[in-house]
Design a protein that fits this description.
By secondary structure, the protein is an alpha+beta fold. It has 6 helices and 5 strands; from the N terminus they run βααββαβααβα. The chain folds into 2 domains: 62 residues, Ribosomal protein L11/L12, N-terminal domain (Ribosomal protein L11, N-terminal domain); 125 residues, Arc Repressor Mutant, subunit A (Orthogonal Bundle).
Amino acid sequence: MAKEVVRVAKLEFNAGQAKPGPELAGLGIVMPEFTKQFNDATRDRGSEPVPVEITIYKDKSFTFKLFTAPAAYKLKQAAKIEKGSANSKTTIAATITKDQLKEIAEYKLVDLNTDDVEQAMKIIAGTAKNMGIAIEGWDDVAKLKEEAKAAQIAEHKAQAAEAKLAEDAKAAAENKDFVEAEVIKKPADEEGDE
């Protein structure tokens, strides 16, 4: 008879470095037992982040499944950058080669919804695009950089126009307050003239 599943939790720890803590505390499992098993299973993966799916059963036992490191982590590693672009439309953070893309796609293939390397490359290329990472031999890098520069100029113009509108609105509000004060004040002055 199959054990009754109480909960399935998806977490992420650095390879070989899981410790008892708040992420595990609410799961109702023996934390030191999980961390030991996880660390032993991932020790050979350096310090990369390892997503894990933990299935918790009614008797407080558990099983877990390890996944490959996130595509974003592998892309940053390949591009030798700390983080992707804050705005991928205006900034190209880095470039990688088509061979690096294929290598990452082959690595991630076991966790993707496809078994076709070309399709996996498209999926990883989408992640790269969102991070502002261009792919030589896949993307038209020169065109992407040109588009990013144009988008950056347009964004600066839009911000300048927005700032000008805000400044004009503030000046108009101050002028309105001044005009209203004059209107209120004037009748009182005229009464004194009589």
